[in-house]
Each structure stands twice: as structure tokens, then as C-alpha cells.
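Re: that backbone. C-alpha cells:
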């Protein structure tokens, strides 16, 4: 007999032979487990509803029919705890089929007590480790959500890794990419992971401030410096002292301001407009642009010396259409927010999610977010469908909900991802969200389907 262990796990033993149940229960209790037993499907279902179990030992041939279908049905219903199938030697093929449907292992009768203890311990240990991994993933996802870095694509993972490496430093960062791809989100994430996180994060949109006002906004001014300056005012540079200064759309900054900004970055000090007292600052600089700055340098609209000062490390963001696997998890994140805002649960059905995944999104994440907000506002049911999107678009969809559109510069990898997502959603829809049946339709193992669902951020289909 295996060495006695100090354990608190509770096991449910489901077998139609009372003598076998009593014998196995004794063996398991001797090594420290709590064991309950029952002899038919109805009793097992009742026990599972009334009590939490760490593991189930399940004979597939149970009353009332004594056919494997009864046990397999119960196996399909148990998705959160490990199940070990008990079978006779002649039922090995059936046991392997049960494992393909989600069972963790199987034991052939007559059961050896030492083997029973080993298999049970192994299943519980592995399940415990998987739970820990899931908890760590949940904590990581929560942290990523807090930082705004949401997604499962290789590009998003690359961004997370790069940000974690550069955030603790003070190197200047230039974020380049199309509008709406989350450049300010990245800047804030760098700030939040840096030693400056408890200091100010000051964001300046260089294209939104008139050029004649930009200098006074950045440097501040003294009373009487110009008409209307009726008091001293601290500039954004001074407000960012010991924190992070984010210059958004730096490519829109006028050339005369580029010279002044470069001097501040080189010397770490400046004079407020109309002032004679020098102000020293210590800031981490992060810039962003949707322009091609090297081209602007070549054409003389952006200073080369400032460009080289800004681009300590360059981060290039990607179009949303090039990372469609991020769309389901982004949609879920935004809908959770709108669910709280509208005080009702909201989610996309399979066809609506497919429509969102296959749009080109020229406005990228910003456009996706705004579209979801609009759909959430007009949806009459908790499950948002194609009809809601048609209503929003004036009964005209930009792409067919039943076909995968050809996106600009669509790669083979992206087309494969689109097709996989669509097939998974269709399979789940057809079997009312049953993962085991969906996996069988797709020719996958249940675990293989779960991995693909996790990769693409696909949630269970709600048929309530």
C-alpha cells in the first residue's frame, strides 16, 4: 500500500457494485482521502449538485441502462474536475474513447490498490497544477486589462514583452503606427510599469494645440508675458517633473517648437514664456506618431536631430485587421464595460462575432470600440446579433455575415485564422455550446478545441 498522505480532497466513486465501492473506499481512506459512493447516474448527479469533489471515479456502464452512454453523458456534464474511468479489460477501447472526450485516465478492473492510489494522486496533482496555471493566467490577464494591453495575438504578446523590458529604464520611446491602434495605451503601460508610476503622466496632443499656443502650454508663462496672461501658469513640462511626458502626434509639431523642445531634452531646463528664472525638469519622454517620420526628416518637415533624440527605442503598432484573433477578447472587454454602463448583460452571438472579426477596421481599435458602444446602445436583447448590426448600418452590412471578406493585404495566416474562428463558432452554435460535441464535429480532441478557443479568445455560446 502507498505511503499514507495527509490529504483533504473528497472523491466521488460511482459504480453499480456496492462491494467494489466499499473496498475501493477503504483503500482511498487509508491514504487520507474523503470518499463518497453511489451506484447510479441519478444519485451521482445529485451528489455532484450537493457536494464539491476534487475527483470522480466513474464506471461507464451504470443503471438504468447499463450502457456506456449513461456514463459518457455524466462525463460530458463534469467539466471542472478530473474524472478517472473504471472499466473491464475488454472495454479498453471504450476507455480510450472516454479519454478523448475529456476523462483524465482510466483503470482496468480488477483494480490494484497501489495503482489506484498512484493514478488518483497523479490526477489530483496535475489538476491542482493546472488550476494554479489558470489562476496565474487570470492574474496576468487582470494585470494586462488594467494596463489596457488586451489581446492574444503574437503582436500583442510581443508588445507586452517589449514594454516589460523597457519600462524600468529611462530610454526615450517612439511609438509609430496607424491611428486608433492604442499608442497612448502603450505609453501609459510603460509609465505604469516604471519607477515613475506614482508620479504624473502628462499627455500632450501636439496636433490639437494651435501652434501659437503650444509654447506657452508646454513651458508655462509668467504674469504679463502676453495679453491675457493675468497670472503665472505652470506648463505641462513642469507638471511632468519626475514623471512621464507623452507627446502624441509629435509629427504635427511646428519646426520652431521642435528646436525649443530639443534644447529642453538636451539640457533638462527651460525658461517659462516671459520668465527669467530657469526651471529644471526630470522627465521620461515617450512620443507617438502616425506619420512616417524618416520621410518627414528627408523632406525637411521634421528635424533629424530631434528625431534621433526621440527614437531611443521604436515600437511599431499593427493594424487591427492584421491581428483578428485579438478582436473576440477586445469585444468581450468592451462589452463588459458597456454591460455595466447599461446595467444589463451583453454579448455577441456567433454570426455577429464573425462579422466583427472579418471587418477591415480602418479606424482600428478605436473604431471597433465605438461600433460596439453603438451596437450595445441600440440592442434590445442581451445577445447581440446580425439584426442589431444591420439596424446600426441602415440594414446594409459592409460585408456578408456568411462569407469571409478579402481584407487589404490579407495574408494566408490571417485567412486561416478567420476560417478556424468561423468553423469553431459554427460548431459550438450547432451543438448548443457543448465543447465535446463541437470538438468531435471539427475532428479535434476536446483539449485541442479548448486550446484554440483560448488562443482566439472565444467564449462559450450562451443559449439561455
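Recovered sequence:
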Amino acid at each position: 500500500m502507498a505511503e499514507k498522505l495527509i490529504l483533504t480532497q473528497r472523491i466521488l466513486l460511482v459504480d453499480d457494485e456496492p462491494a467494489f465501492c466499499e473496498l475501493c473506499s477503504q483503500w482511498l481512506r487509508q491514504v487520507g482521502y474523503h470518499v463518497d459512493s453511489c451506484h447510479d447516474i441519478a444519485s451521482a448527479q445529485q451528489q455532484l449538485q450537493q457536494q464539491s469533489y476534487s475527483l470522480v471515479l466513474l464506471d461507464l456502464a451504470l443503471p438504468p441502462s447499463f450502457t456506456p452512454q449513461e456514463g459518457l453523458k455524466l462525463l460530458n456534464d463534469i467539466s471542472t474536475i478530473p474524472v478517472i474511468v473504471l472499466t473491464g479489460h475488454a472495454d479498453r477501447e471504450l476507455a480510450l474513447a472516454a479519454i478523448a472526450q475529456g476523462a483524465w485516465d482510466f483503470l482496468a478492473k480488477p483494480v490494484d490498490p497501489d495503482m489506484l492510489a498512484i493514478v488518483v494522486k497523479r490526477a489530483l496533482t496535475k489538476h491542482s497544477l493546472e488550476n494554479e496555471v489558470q489562476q496565474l493566467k487570470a492574474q496576468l490577464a487582470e494585470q494586462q486589462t488594467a494596463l489596457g494591453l488586451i489581446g492574444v495575438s503574437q503582436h500583442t504578446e510581443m508588445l507586452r514583452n517589449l514594454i516589460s523590458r523597457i519600462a524600468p529604464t529611462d530610454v526615450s520611446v517612439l511609438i509609430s503606427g496607424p491611428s486608433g491602434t492604442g499608442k497612448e495605451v502603450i505609453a501609459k503601460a510603460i509609465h505604469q510599469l516604471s519607477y515613475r508610476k506614482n508620479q504624473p503622466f502628462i499627455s500632450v496632443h501636439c496636433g490639437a494645440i494651435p501652434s501659437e499656443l503650444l509654447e506657452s502650454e508646454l513651458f508655462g508663462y509668467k504674469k504679463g508675458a502676453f495679453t491675457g496672461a493675468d497670472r503665472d501658469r505652470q506648463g505641462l513640462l513642469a507638471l511632468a517633473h519626475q514623471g512621464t511626458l507623452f507627446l502624441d502626434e509629435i509629427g504635427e509639431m511646428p519646426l520652431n517648437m521642435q528646436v525649443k523642445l530639443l534644447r529642453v531634452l538636451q539640457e533638462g531646463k527651460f525658461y517659462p514664456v516671459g520668465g527669467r528664472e530657469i526651471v529644471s525638469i526630470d522627465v521620461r519622454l515617450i512620443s507617438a506618431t502616425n506619420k512616417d517620420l524618416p520621410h518627414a526628416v528627408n523632406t525637411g518637415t521634421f528635424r533629424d536631430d530631434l528625431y534621433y533624440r526621440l527614437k531611443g527605442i521604436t515600437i511599431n503598432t499593427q493594424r487591427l485587421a492584421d491581428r483578428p484573433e485579438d478582436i473576440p477578447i477586445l469585444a468581450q472587454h468592451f462589452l463588459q464595460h458597456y454591460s455595466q454602463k447599461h446595467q444589463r448583460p451583453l454579448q455577441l452571438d456567433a454570426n455577429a462575432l464573425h462579422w466583427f472579426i472579418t471587418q477591415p477596421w480602418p479606424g482600428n481599435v478605436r473604431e471597433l470600440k465605438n461600433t460596439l458602444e453603438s451596437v450595445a446602445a441600440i440592442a434590445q436583447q442581451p445577445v447581440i446579433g446580425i439584426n442589431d448590426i444591420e439596424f446600426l448600418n441602415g440594414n446594409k452590412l459592409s460585408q456578408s455575415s456568411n462569407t469571409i471578406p478579402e481584407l487589404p493585404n490579407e495574408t494566408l495566416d490571417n485567412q486561416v485564422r478567420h476560417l478556424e474562428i468561423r468553423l469553431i463558432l459554427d460548431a459550438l452554435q450547432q451543438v448548443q455550446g457543448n465543447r465535446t460535441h463541437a470538438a468531435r464535429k471539427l475532428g479535434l480532441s476536446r483539449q485541442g478545441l479548448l486550446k484554440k478557443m483560448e488562443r482566439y479568445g472565444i467564449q462559450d455560446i450562451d443559449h439561455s
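Residues 172 and 310 are 6 Å apart (CA to CA). The chain has three domains: 10-134, 167-315, 322-456.
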